[in-house]
Amino acid sequence: LAGLPFSFLGTFTGFEIPFAIDKSLSYLGSLATPLALLVIGANTKITAIASNMKSVIMACVFRLILQPALVLVLFIVFGVPAAANVYIVTKKMGGDADMASGIIVVSIIMSLFTLTAGIFILRTIGII
Predict the structure, then answer these.
(1) What is the pLDDT of residues 73-102, one digit of tens each?
(2) At a CB cut-off of 8 Å and minimum separation 6, what does 57 contact?
């Protein structure tokens, strides 16, 4: 919402944000996802993953295998690992943040194999 006035000004009057501010905001935007993954990694408890292993594996299997199989055309969109914002939303809404961070970490690791295998299979059968 804070950026809307600048967008309208730029559209109707040709106003441009000064280069230094624009570049700084661009760097901040590029840092958001890696920083979120670092925070999630730092807050991930291996014991929480181990104690919820069945749920974590089931969530990852659904997210990385079943969902892409159901939506073959959009395989890459639905086959990517759980997003970092899942942890933030879960924590803010009072959910099980430890399990959410476990799902993110395990799904990122599993996606190395599932995405590679899925793309290989789709390429082999001639879909992509």
Answers:
(1) 788 778 888 888 889 899 999 999 999 999
(2) 106
Q: How many CA atoms lie within 13 A of 76 on its CB side?
A: 7
Are 22 and 72 a contacting pair, CB within 8 Å? no
Q: How far apart are CA 80 and CA 33, in angstroms?
A: 15
User: Is a pLDDT exceeding 90 seen at residue 18?
Assistant: no
Could you count the other beta carbons within 10 Å of the beta carbon of residue 39?
A: 14
Q: What is the token pair recorded at 78?
A: 């639905």
Contact 84, 104 (CB under 8 A): yes
Both tokens of 38, joined, read 């670092």
